[in-house]
Amino acid sequence: MSFLAIYLGLGLIAGFIAGLLGVGGGLILVPVLSWVYAHQGFPAEYNIHMALATSLATIVLTSIASLRAHHRHGAVRWQAVRRIAPGIVLGTLAGAVAAAGLPDFGLRLFFTVFLFYAASQMLFGLAPAARSRGLNNGSADVSLHRNSVFKPQAHRQLPSWPGMTAVGVVIGLISSWVGIGGGTLSVPFLSWCNVRFQEAIGTSAAIGFPIAVSGALGYALSGQTADNLPAWSLGFVYLPALAAVAATSMLSAPWGARLTHRLPVARLKKIFAGLLYILALRMTYSLF
Question: How many domains does the chain have?
Fold first, then answer.
C-alpha cells in the first residue's frame, strides 16, 4: 500500500507539472519509477526498462486530453502529423524493441545525458521557455526568434515526406529511450521550420500520441522474453503503477494548466530545471 501511495502521489506531481509547464511527465516519472522499482525488489537489470515502458504507457492516456484541447483551438497541423507519424512509429517501435537487448547501464547513461540536456534547454531559455513568455504577452513568435538558438530563417519550411519520415525516426528512437512524448525534441524542430509556436506545441501534442502507443507496445512485446518480471506486468509495463499514475496525473494536469496564466511560469521553469539537474545528478550517482 505504501508503494501504491507513492504511485498516486507521483502521478499528481507529474500531471501538475505537465499541465503547468507544458512538458512531458516522463522526465519526472522515469527516474522516480526506477528508484521505486528498485526498492520494491524488482529485477535490477530491468528497472530502467520498466520505468521507460510505464512512462510511455501513461502518456498514451494523458496525451489524448492534451491533443483534444489543442485541436479545439485549431493549433494542430495535421498534415505535419501525417507526414511524420510513419517515421515516429518506426523509430519508436525499433527503439523499444532494441531496448530489451540494451544493458541497464547504457539506458541509464542515455537517459541521464538527456536529463542534463532537457534541464539546460529549460534553464537557458531555449524554445520551451519562449512558450511561457509568448503565452503571457501574446508574442510567442517574437520571443522565440529573439531568444532561441534555433534562429529560423524566413524561407525555411517543413521538409517533404522523406525528410519528415527521417526526422520522425530520430525523434521516435530517442523518445523510446527516455520515456517521453517527444515534445522536448519536436517543438524545437517545428519552430526551427517556422511553425508558429502555438501550433508547434499543439502539433507536438498530437505527435506524442503515436510515440506513446508504439513505444508502450514495443516495450510490452520486447518484455515478453524477460525473466523474473513482477506479477501484473505486461512485458515491461508494470500495470499497477500505470493505473495509479495515470489516474492521478489526468486529475492534476488540468489544475496545472489553469494556473499557467496566473503564476510566473518563466521562473517556475527555472525551478523545474533545477529539479531536473538534481534528478540527473542522482541518476549519475546511481551509475557508479
Answer: 1
Cβ atoms 35, 185 nearer than 8 A? no
Structural domain that includes position 126: 2-287
Determine the average pLDDT of the residues in 139-168: 64
User: pLDDT class for 23, splitting at 50, 70, 90?
Assistant: low
